[in-house]
Design a protein that fits this description.
The chain is of the alpha/beta class. It is built from 18 helices and 12 strands. The longest helix is centred in the C-terminal third of the chain and has 25 residues, at 390-414. It is globular. The two termini are 17 Å apart. Bound molecules: NADPH dihydro-nicotinamide-adenine-dinucleotide phosphate.
């Protein structure tokens, strides 16, 4: 079956899953040259096989709120592909979570994990539970209830979830506690655990820091540097604030962060003390807008950051947050580099637009792979029951991000996608990630 026939099949079967179709097409449009060079992929229906998850578990979660009322939510775990290793991918708690969103995230995760060069497969999970406004006791009861349903399907060598939107260290710890309680097993069933009970140093920072390390390699490839560059970050969560932190450390001027309520614009840039304040503010669930009373700057309610003139954009909030109109605004405002901290933050039209305008564009599966890379490093530390230092993990993360950059750039060159110094990272990353998984599937025959 050809790639185009496989897409038609996905569109016919999953017409009600737009995010999943979008993610499949984004990979499909870039891997044709690889497919042409490997006729065995078509014979073995590799693309078709990779667009159908190995399995999906779905379950009901009953839990009790602070008023003693019973609440009901839905949970899922998508085990997409274990061709390269245990299923690996985060859990998202957000009211927009559904099967389409989790399948898109799980599909992306297969190739992202392959790009790290580490032995991990792809998966994703979560719930339509909304953590906003919930008390700590409610979060704890929900996490316990969620893991009570999930635990039969995960284990340290088979499927290893982590955090994502709405799931940070606190939630992972509650779920880990319930897993241990039910199974009596200590080990690496979840990553992103607290440091001191199996968690890796640097896991919290890894995705945001990794995205900036990737950006450094992109700039270097253009004989440029991050020093003094004006950077726009969207979101104010784990990825955003650590991307802002690392960019600031390396001498860039970070002009914005944002959340679902609006954008914070500080012409002086977010220094470390301001970023620390933002972290504490978001952790307590308080409004970003209060920043202006303390540090000055501007609050733009219900606006995204792309109206600001800058050199680099790191969209790090959520999928499809950058539309074609936003992309036009970015180009008008001087953005030359886009690094996806979030998963699929650009719509398909926005990607087309920025690539046509030769904006250097790093897709999330390459640029935000630092988080899962350090998760895999956490798994290896758990296996040998030893901890690495912050510096050791940071050095490993830098090497991994550089390798991802260089292998994507080399594939872009090798498959004729590099033009006058413009590196097609989207094509390069998809080709490298897809090839690693496809070659494993070819070796296995028809299983997996
Ligand atoms: P967090 O929950 O820590 O932060 C998410 C941020 O995005 C919040 O500031 C939130 O605002 C904002 N946001 C969420 N939805 C919307 C929306 N519809 N419109 C505007 N803002 C929104 O999540 P993470 O930082 O962990 O994840 C962010 C992105 O990065 C996701 O796409 C995730 O899949 C991806 N990612 C995360 C990794 C990780 O290690 N955490 C690894 C790789 C990718 P508010 O607080 O107002 O809701």
């Amino acid at each position: 079956m050809s790639i185009s026939q496989a897409i038609e099949k996905v569109e016919a079967h999953y017409a009600h899953q737009p995010e999943f179709i979008q993610a499949v097409k984004e990979v499909a449009i870039t891997i044709q040259p690889l497919y042409d060079a490997h006729p065995e992929y078509e014979t073995l229906k590799i693309f078709e096989r990779l667009t159908e998850p190995d399995r999906i578990f779905t379950f009901r979660i009953n839990w009790e709120n602070d008023k003693g009322e019973i609440q009901v939510n839905r949970g899922w775990r998508v085990q997409f592909s274990n061709a390269l290793g245990p299923y690996k991918g985060g859990l998202r708690f957000h009211p927009t979570v559904n099967q389409s969103v989790l399948k898109f995230l799980g599909f992306e995760q297969i190739f992202k994990n392959a790009l790290t060069g580490l032995p991990i497969g792809g998966g994703k999970g979560g719930s339509d539970f909304d953590p906003k406004g919930k008390s700590d006791s409610e979060i704890r009861r929900f996490c316990y209830a969620f893991m009570r349903e999930l635990y039969p399907y995960v284990s340290k060598d088979m499927d290893v979830p982590a955090g994502d939107i709405g799931v940070g260290g606190r939630e992972v710890s509650y779920m880990y506690a319930m897993y241990k309680n039910l199974t009596r097993e200590s080990g690496g069933v979840l990553t992103g655990k607290g440091v001191g009970f199996g968690g890796s140093l640097m896991r919290t920072e890894a995705t945001g820091y990794g995205a900036v390390y990737f950006l450094e390699s992109m700039l270097e490839a253009q004989n440029d540097s991050i020093e003094g560059k004006r950077v726009l970050v969207s979101g104010a969560g784990n990825v955003s604030l650590h991307a802002a932190e690392k960019a600031n450390m390396l001498g860039a001027v970070v002009l914005s962060v944002s959340d679902s309520q609006g954008t914070l614009y500080d012409t002086k840039g977010f220094s470390q003390d301001k970023i620390d304040w933002l972290k504490a503010q978001k952790e307590q669930g308080k409004p970003l807008a209060e920043y202006v009373e303390i540090f000055g700057g501007e609050w733009h309610a219900k606006q995204k950051p792309w109206f600001i003139k800058a050199d680099i954009a790191i969209p790090s909030a959520t999928q499809n947050e950058v539309t074609e109109d936003d992309a036009k605004l970015m180009v008008e405002n001087g953005i030359k580099y886009i690094v996806e901290g979030a998963n699929m933050p650009l719509t398909a039209d926005a990607i087309d637009y920025v690539r046509e305008h030769r904006v250097h564009y790093a897709p999330g599966k390459a640029a935000n792979a630092g988080g899962v890379a350090v998760s895999a490093i956490e798994m290896s530390q758990n296996s040998v029951r030893q901890y690495k230092t912050f510096e050791e993990v940071d050095a490993q993360l830098k090497t991994i991000m550089k390798n991802i950059h260089d292998s994507a750039a080399a594939a872009s060159e090798c498959y004729g996608q590099t033009d006058n110094g413009y590196i097609d990272y989207m094509a390069g990353a998809n080709i490298v990630g897809f090839k690693r998984v496809a070659d494993a599937l070819v070796a296995y025959g028809i299983l997996n």
